[in-house]
Design brief:
four-stranded antiparallel beta sheet; Tumour Suppressor Smad4; five-stranded parallel beta sheet; about 400 residues; 3 domains
Length: about 400
């Protein structure tokens, strides 16, 4: 059988089986399946092993939190409340954790919550995104470099391990890290020390490492693209965040939460808008939902022109002539007759700039508090804040 062959979970009183891309496949009563709902009495064949599915005579009590969230993570669905007791234990611990899930499920938000709810909350929380750094600069970003170590190294620089000393380091998209750097990362984790490029001394570090990935690391290990020794070192504990389509009831809760954070005080959310949100599958998960609510807050009914959700009303009549009562930036964009992607980009740029200015003003310029109030990860808030400043300066 494959290292990670199939997944099983209970859905509405039935056992849901999902083949996880196994090489030899999964069979239920002799029939090859990718996904199936089982009632009991079935036979599951994986490789040379046969599993019998039976209903238990009594239901075991599974810990289920009554909380509506964990730290910055919001969710009241059964799928999420099952995770909260585990998250509480992991926050109090110092072991490495791998956070898995589709793009947009909130992996970085969970990592930041584990840091803020744990004993290292007073230390730094540093994010290293393996996909955001050019390949030739990855090692320098991880471990730092000395002045003159290579062309362009005009000054000494600390790596993220040194920056996160005494706190938490999140290595985002760990599955995208090149093999040669995986070996160096493993050494840094095992010995708790790093050496800058061009340096001779080993520097001791005290860092809790969390990792996040959208990839299936078991498959990456099996394919030889990820070192098994590094995998076992990182995956002391694992948390898999469910996609939004499996979080029954959370779309409405999240939409109202985002609206409360983003909209003006006492401005109600449209129930018709909430109903339409609840009927969509959200392939982009929580991030896509957050963006949709942000568009609605910024653009009102005109935001339907920029939503990807099916069934959204399109209020185009009169838009080009400017008689919609829209705010000036939107009217200006619509008057430019731009292609849809470019028009959407320009409207969102204007919204991001105004939103960042407003939330920073309300929190006295404190980025940490502003990011927390925004309900987004601190790193993402800093990215859009920097982008907004660049646009304002004409960059």
């Amino acid at each position: 059988m494959s290292r990670r062959h199939l997944g099983l979970d209970v859905a509405d009183g039935r056992l849901r089986l999902s083949d996880l891309g196994s090489k030899n496949g999964t069979r239920v009563n002799g029939v090859a399946v990718l996904e199936a709902l089982l009632d009991g009495g079935e036979r599951i064949d994986i490789g040379t092993t046969t599993l019998a599915v039976e209903r238990a005579e009594r239901v075991l009590d599974v810990p289920l939190s009554n909380a509506l969230g964990f730290g910055r993570l919001v969710g009241a669905s059964v799928a999420m409340r099952r995770l909260y007791p585990l998250c509480e234990k992991l926050a109090a611990a110092t072991v490495p954790v791998v956070i898995e899930g589709e793009t947009g499920t909130g992996k970085e938000v969970l990592a930041e919550s584990l840091h803020e709810m744990g004993p290292r909350s007073g230390g730094p929380f540093v994010v290293f995104d393996c996909t955001a750094v050019p390949p030739n600069l990855l090692e320098s970003a991880l471990f730092g470099h000395e002045r003159g170590a290579f062309t362009g190294a005009s000054e000494q620089r600390r790596g993220v391990f040194e920056e996160a000393h005494g706190g938490t380091l999140l290595i985002d998209e760990i599955g995208d890290l090149e093999l040669d750097l995986q070996a160096k990362l493993l050494r840094a984790l095992e010995r708790n020390e790093v050496r800058r490029i061009g340096g001779k001394a080993w520097i001791k570090t005290d860092v809790r490492v969390l990792s996040a990935t959208r990839r299936n690391l078991d498959e990456e290990v099996a394919a030889g693209r990820f070192r098994d020794d590094l995998f076992y070192r990182l995956a002391v504990a694992r948390v898999e965040l469910p996609p939004l389509r499996r979080r029954t009831g959370d779309v409405e809760l999240l939409a109202r939460t985002f609206w409360k954070r983003l909209a003006a005080a006492n401005e109600p959310i449209s129930e018709d808008f909430v109903a339409r949100l609840s009927g969509y599958a959200w392939p982009g998960n929580v991030r896509e939902l957050s963006n949709s609510v942000a568009r609605r807050v910024a653009l009102g009914d005109l935001g339907d022109l920029y939503t990807t959700a099916p069934g959204a009303a399109v209020h185009s009549k009169g838009a080009a002539s400017g008689d919609t009562g829209a705010i000036d930036p939107i009217a200006a964009v619509l008057g430019q007759n731009l292609p849809f992607p470019r028009a959407r980009e320009k409207v969102m740029e204007a919204f991001e700039r105004r939103y960042v200015e407003d939330v920073l003003r309300r929190h006295g310029g404190n980025v940490v508090r502003a990011a927390a109030a925004s309900g987004i990860a601190r790193r993402y808030f800093q990215i859009i804040s920097a982008r907004a400043r660049q646009k304002e300066s004409g960059g």
